[in-house]
Amino acid sequence: MNTQVAIIGAGPSGLLLGQLLHKAGIDTVVLERQSPDYVLGRIRAGVLEQGTVDLLREAGVGERMDREGLVHEGVELLVGGRRQRLDLKALTGGKTVMVYGQTEVTRDLMQAREASGASIIYCASNVQLHELKGERPYVTFEKDGQVQRLDCDYIAGCDGFHGVSRKSIPEGVLKEYERVYPFGWLGMLSDTPPVNHELIYAHHERGFSLCSQRSQTRSRYYLQVPLGEQVEDWPDERFWNELKARLPEDVAQRLVTGPALEKSIAPLRSLVVEPMQYGHLFLVGDAAHIVPPTGAKGLNLAASDVNYLYRILLKVYHEGRTDLLAHYSPLALRRVWKGERFSWFMTQLLHDFGAHKDAWDQKMQEADREYFLSSPAGLVNIAENYVGLPYEEVV
């Protein structure tokens, strides 16, 4: 088999890159080790930055998103009993965010891939990358008991933190930066109307909570919990009671409860590897960086990587600009680190670190809350990062 760009991973970043390249006349093959149902079963965040929304529209997959997604012009922050609405649209000169689940983004991209007839191979096992710094890289994999080879010009590693792409880079090439947080998020998905028309980020002495949503009838709620907690220890009734305890009384009274459709605990950490390129291999999304979900940046940073790699490959194939290939990692990382900073900042601002912070750190946390929620400049800072910083132009 031959292609121009081999894409490892059929999550939203791999499928989005494939869709954009296909529309530009660049041949791709997508390899995914899991089944389509498994990929769609991953429950992830659903707050899309303005840039991500625009990129999905450019890829021709924005029709259902524009019809069913919920445009949010603001979010609410609750700290120390104080309720502060961030008017995103007013603070950023008209920018907003779109609430549209990552599962739905993936579904739209899957359907577009199928409709295009472009090649996608699910349940590809034992994927291995070869000759990454040679003249002609290639990928081998097993499908239906047969070993197959895919020759290509470039490889996009869109297969997440546990995928083969990053692990294919020799030891000592990548530098890793990591921050592990002493708590996780217990998330619950339910077919209940959202408690509020906009997202609520709440700090409380009992811990952080987030009231999010997927639609007008489906809600997603999160609770900060200590590391080591088990989902089995959190029956629905305990979850709802704890969420109510962390919300203002008027909000708690509006909360509609119901059985969980899905419940899981995710540890929080920040991680970046540099560089995001090795020879003909380009790391995209979670293969290169992880963010705590507090800033709603995970999928959006992956889309940012896709934007840069797509625009570079466009110029490579249409204009012969192979000099731009070396620009991918610096371009992507500049925006990644800004997204990491904002996610770290929001995590520091809104969570209870308990014994993991000394008295000085706690005072700094209180000062940050007071400043950022009282200062017009502080509110603009949060708002412009939340809706997403602009992409740099690829020239």
Report on this model:
With 395 residues, this protein is α+β, with helices and mostly antiparallel strands. The protein has a domain at 5-69 and 98-177 and 269-355: FAD/NAD(P)-binding domain. The protein is built from 13 helices and 20 strands. It has helices spanning 12-23, 36-40, 50-58, 63-68, 88-91, 102-116, 164-167, 236-245, 249-254, 298-319, 328-350, 359-374, 376-387, and strands at residues 5-8, 28-31, 47-48, 70-72, 74-79, 82-87, 97-99, 119-121, 125-130, 138-143, 146-151, 154-157, 175-190, 200-203, 209-213, 219-226, 260-274, 277-278, 281-283, 289-290. It has an 8-stranded mixed β-sheet with strand order 6-5-14-15-16-13-17-20, sandwiched between helices. A 6-stranded mixed β-sheet has the order 8-2-1-12-19-18. Helix 12 packs across helix 13 (376-387). It is globular.
Outline the secondary-structure elements.
Blueprint: E1 5-8, H1 12-23, E2 28-31, H2 36-40, E3 47-48, H3 50-58, H4 63-68, E4 70-72, E5 74-79, E6 82-87, H5 88-91, E7 97-99, H6 102-116, E8 119-121, E9 125-130, E10 138-143, E11 146-151, E12 154-157, H7 164-167, E13 175-190, E14 200-203, E15 209-213, E16 219-226, H8 236-245, H9 249-254, E17 260-274, E18 277-278, E19 281-283, E20 289-290, H10 298-319, H11 328-350, H12 359-374, H13 376-387
Parallel strand pairs: 1-2, 1-12, 2-8, 5-14, 12-19
Antiparallel strand pairs: 3-7, 4-7, 5-6, 9-10, 10-11, 13-16, 13-17, 14-15, 15-16, 17-20, 18-19
Helix pairs in contact: 1-6, 1-10, 10-11, 12-13
